Amino acid sequence: MTGALVAGAVVGIGLYVLVRALFPPRPGLSARLAAFDAARRRDQEDAQAGRMSPTLDRVGGIRAKVGRELVRFCESRGWQLRSIRHDLAITERSLDAFLATKFLLPAGALLFIPLIVGYFALLGLGTSVQIPAWICLLFAALFFFFPDMQLRQEAAARRQDFRHVVGAFLDLVSMNLAGGRGVPEALMTASNVGEGWAMHRIRDALANARITGQTPWQALGRLGDELDVAELRDLAGALALVADDGAQIRKSLGARAASMRSRELSELEGKAGERSQSMLVAQLFLCAGFLVFLAYPALMRVLAS
User: Fold this and answer.
1) 10-residue block means of pLDDT along the chain (305 residues)?
2) Within a 10 A sphere around the Cβ of 95, how many other Cβ atoms?
3) How does it sit in the membrane (predicted)?
């Protein structure tokens, strides 16, 4: 019965994939424009990067090729992958490498099926393929979702650091406004103070805005959309509304910085409370194990008598 269900599922999936391959959905205009822009960016990056060394080219050639093909496939289907792109942007990774990792890790797990079958045969457990196939499928599923979990955790940590930098940046901008500078000059001067990766991103966004003729708050809003940082988008909106009133924007920035610090402090207190509770649970388990260790000899004597 199980074999029949598995065979029916495999046949159904095969028919579905065949129909989708024969009649692919037509991508919309936005998807085609996004694919065109992505291809142009890849060509520019390849021209700037130059030729790699022969060893690195051989090692990363397959991974790079698989990543490019997967990116083209997603763009042809019109898949935006916005959350993944936000996380990759804040962790400074490429979509090609991420998709290649998601594909090659499960594929590598499935390649171990013959090895596990041979190992079971050496142990005398038979040559059945069913159990090794299920084991490799389980590991393939885990390996497929492992890059997403790792990327999400790293992106959350970097967003927390970025929010902390934004709070300090607001204080610096408020101090520069109090010194008599205008809003654009105060933003640029404040961004030149720090040396961390987050302040570098803010500084680059403001410098690019000056070159392209955009306003600084538009550049900050675009950076907030790219990195999915709500505090930066709110800052851009506030600057766009009250950029002409220096005193009002100075008060607003000070209030925003204070609220961000209080929220960060409350989050840190909540994390500290969670860790205290986990330590308490671990101590309770340790005490329970010690009591079992003490009571086991006496219980065995009572049962033996």
Assistant:
1) 61 65 58 62 54 46 76 78 86 85 82 72 68 79 87 88 85 82 82 83 87 85 86 81 63 77 78 79 83 80 75
2) 19
3) Multi-pass membrane protein
Angstrom distance (rounded) from CA 247 to CA 241: 13
pLDDT of residue 53: 45
pTM, entire model: 0.63
Up-side HSE of residue 1: CA atoms within 13 Å toward CB? 0
CA angle 132–133–137, rounded 5-degree value: 115
Q: Return the closest-CA partner of residue 114 out of 93, 128, 100, 98.
A: 128
Q: Which long-range contacts (CB under 8 A, 24 or more apart) does 57-63 make?
A: 63/97, 63/100, 63/101, 63/104
Rg over alpha carbons for the chain, rounded to the nearest Å, is: 28
- Which whole-number Å values give the CA distances from 17 to 14, 21, 23, 81, 243, in the listed order? 5, 6, 10, 21, 54
State the pLDDT at residue 106. Answer: 83
Q: How far apart are CA 81 and CA 99, in angstroms?
A: 11
Query: Which of 143, 112, 137, 116 has the alpha carbon at shortest distance from 128?
Result: 116
Burial classification of residue 146, based on how many CB atoms lie within 10 Å of its CB (0-12 exposed, 13-18 middle, 19 or more buried): middle
